[in-house]
């Protein structure tokens, strides 16, 4: 079943919006039937499984002669395979929510707020609250019984959000999230909201399962879930507005609007003024001067966002428009739907974390600080050592002629100058390296960046070289297009962009050729380095499942690293040809692109082609 393209998704969303505007009742009926299709498929699988199991048991108990006939004719094998296929299709696992669970006994203030909102909204029960390192809040439903539901509702609270908002603003945010689970407004909208999330979780679960039955279900849900998401988009967006209205009713219109604005305004402030400054200290200190979350709490208390910075951030985010990439409307539309008054977040002395976490507030900060240090202490030290090394190299080569350095020293110096001394200092060193290696993508990329930033059209010849690597193509292409456009050369800029697209398409085809093999591939005698060949042979000889082996080379569109295919005759004990093939492939720890196929099993035709075109190596 073909999946939706972005254009098809947007077209279906627009169609659903039109249908909803013209006849909301008819739209909801069609949406309910479409939602039921997913449940019907699951119900059909369950029914088929029960029928096969029950029928097989019934035949075995009440008609032994028929059961023996099924065994004799090997029909029982087909039935057992069908049972296994259906069972594997239904047996999927969902990742359980992870994080620090807050206990009701330790955080009574938080749960008092939660209970009050849940009761007022007639919302579904929140079974657990997890606090995590984010500037966000969300409710996630985890199916305890797989496809059969039994949802466990988990509220995620971000510690950064709790530190950034007042208790009233945080209450508004929480009311919005619980509004999605509320029974006080549209139960149908709430049901569709949860079904949308469920189908995508099911789709993700099938993606992580490699059984044949799951593969069939994956194909269905890869077609169904995006279509359902698109068709239900109009209602899902309405649900976001409804949840905002819930927040406004439970607090006030001003508070709900202030909470929304504060979240959007605080995010760039915290990232830019706190985290960036905090991480920059690794350049000069071997360890953090203060634990990060304790530091963030102090930062927001001592240096709250200024009115001017607040207005700048709000002005910027208010320019964003609602789009189809997210069911959440743009901030401007959300605020205007709540109130027409101009509002700005208030300053406050006590944040939501202090108010709601109570005596456990400091323990939570300490826990996050400890976890952060465990994850980042080594990286911090590595950054400090790196900067120390860079400063020594820069000092050592302050008056040295770059031409006297070897290639590695010259490239290292160019990178250090670029990072710590700026474009002017780095350009001459990059150019020196490029004189030795005219086709160097790295040198061309950095020279092109520096020259394009200066408005120098000669950057194009360097950026054209940088197009030749997937890691630099996109950025080099954008720099070139922007430079030519700013020069007023729209025709030349468009021609450049078409060249970028052409190179990108060639790289896409080459990448596809490298990522997979098929029977139609063109194979030839391998051109392989002696040391690589010997390493490969040694690993194959040592493997218990690899008997005789042949090596061929796949012809690729580009001139990059070669792609090899090894065909082997299995030996020893193995559960299946596919498992033996996977085991041999996993054992080939060589620095090369190598595929492995077994002479017996699903890939036998391709393996025979390798045997014919290649050489015997074991």
Molecular structure report:
- This protein is an alpha+beta fold.
- Among the domains are: 383-514, Serine Threonine Protein Phosphatase 5, Tetratricopeptide repeat (Alpha Horseshoe); 523-616, Alpha-Beta Plaits (2-Layer Sandwich).
- Helix content is 65%, strand content 8%.
- The chain is built from 25 helices and 9 strands.
- The chain has helices at residues 6-22, 24-62, 64-72, 75-90, 108-121, 159-164, 167-179, 187-207, 212-231, 233-250, 253-280, 292-302, 307-318, 331-338, 352-357, 361-396, 407-420, 423-436, 441-453, 459-466, 470-486, 490-515, 530-542, 577-587, 604-613, and strands at 100-102, 128-132, 137-143, 151-158, 523-524, 546-554, 563-570, 593-598, 615-616.
- The strands form 2 sheets. Strands 5, 6, 7, 8 and 9 form a 5-stranded mixed β-sheet that branches. A 4-stranded mixed β-sheet has the order 1-2-4-3.
- β6 (546-554) and β7 form a beta hairpin.
- α7 (167-179) crosses α11 (253-280), α8 packs across α10 (233-250) and α18 packs antiparallel against α19 (441-453).
- The radius of gyration is 31 Å and the shape is globular.
- The two termini are 42 Å apart.
- The model has no long low-confidence stretch (mean pLDDT 86).
């Amino acid at each position: 079943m073909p999946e939706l393209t972005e254009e098809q998704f947007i077209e279906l969303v627009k169609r659903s919006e039109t249908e909803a505007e013209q006849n909301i009742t008819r739209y909801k009926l069609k949406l309910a039937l479409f939602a039921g299709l997913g449940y019907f498929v699951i119900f059909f699988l369950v029914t088929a499984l029960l029928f096969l199991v029950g029928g097989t048991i019934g035949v075995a108990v009440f008609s032994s002669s028929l059961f023996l006939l099924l065994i004799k004719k090997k029909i029982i094998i087909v039935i057992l395979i069908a049972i296994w296929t259906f069972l594997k299709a239904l047996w999927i696992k969902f990742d359980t929510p992870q994080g620090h669970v807050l206990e009701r006994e330790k955080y009574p203030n938080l749960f008092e707020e939660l209970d009050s909102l849940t009761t007022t909204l007639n919302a579904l029960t929140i079974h657990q609250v997890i606090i995590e390192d984010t500037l966000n809040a969300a409710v996630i439903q985890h199916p305890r019984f797989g496809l059969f539901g039994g949802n466990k509702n988990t509220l995620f609270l971000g510690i950064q959000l709790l530190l950034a908002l007042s208790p009233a603003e945080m209450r508004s945010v929480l009311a919005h999230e619980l509004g999605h689970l509320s029974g006080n407004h549209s139960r149908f909208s709430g049901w569709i909201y949860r079904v949308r999330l469920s189908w995508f979780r099911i789709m993700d679960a099938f993606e992580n399962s490699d059984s044949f039955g799951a593969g069939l279900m994956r194909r269905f849900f890869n077609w169904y879930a995006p279509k359902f998401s698109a068709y239900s988009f109009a209602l899902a967006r309405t649900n976001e507005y409804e949840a905002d209205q819930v927040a406004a009713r439970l607090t006030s219109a001003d508070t709900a609007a202030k909470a929304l604005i504060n979240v959007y305004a605080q995010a760039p402030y915290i990232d830019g003024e706190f985290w960036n400054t905090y991480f920059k200290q690794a350049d000069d200190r071997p360890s953090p001067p203060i634990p990060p979350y304790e530091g963030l709490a102090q930062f927001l208390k001592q240096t709250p966002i200024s009115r001017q910075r607040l207005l700048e951030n709000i002005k910027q985010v208010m320019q964003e428009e609602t789009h189809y990439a997210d069911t959440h409307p743009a901030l401007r539309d959300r605020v205007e739907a709540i109130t027409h008054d101009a509002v700005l977040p208030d300053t406050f002395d006590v944040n939501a974390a202090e108010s709601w976490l109570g005596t456990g507030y400091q323990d939570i900060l300490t826990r996050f600080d400890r976890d952060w240090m465990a994850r980042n202490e080594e990286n911090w030290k590595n950054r400090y050592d790196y900067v120390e090394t860079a400063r020594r190299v820069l000092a050592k080569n302050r008056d040295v002629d770059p031409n006297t350095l070897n290639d590695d020293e010259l490239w290292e110096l160019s990178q250090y100058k670029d990072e710590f001394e700026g474009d002017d200092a780095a350009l001459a060193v990059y150019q020196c390296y490029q004189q030795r290696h005219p086709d160097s993508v790295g040198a061309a990329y950095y020279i092109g960046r520096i020259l394009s930033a200066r408005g120098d059209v000669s950057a194009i010849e360097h950026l054209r070289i940088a197009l030749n690597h997937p890691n630099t193509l996109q950025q080099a292409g954008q720099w070139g297009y922007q430079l030519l456009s700013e020069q007023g050369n729209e025709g030349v800029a468009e021609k450049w962009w078409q060249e970028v697209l052409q190179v990108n398409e060639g790289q896409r085809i080459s990448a596809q050729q490298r990522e997979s093999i098929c029977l139609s591939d063109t194979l030839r005698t391998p051109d392989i380095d002696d040391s690589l060949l010997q390493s490969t042979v040694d690993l194959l000889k040592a493997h218990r499942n690899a008997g005789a082996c042949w090596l061929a080379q796949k012809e690729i569109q580009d001139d990059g690293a070669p792609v090899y295919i090894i065909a082997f005759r299995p030996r020893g004990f193995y559960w299946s040809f596919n498992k033996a093939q996977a085991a041999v492939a996993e054992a080939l720890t060589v620095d090369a692109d190598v595929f492995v196929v077994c002479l017996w099993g699903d890939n036998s035709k391709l393996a025979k082609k390798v045997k014919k075109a290649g050489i015997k190596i074991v």
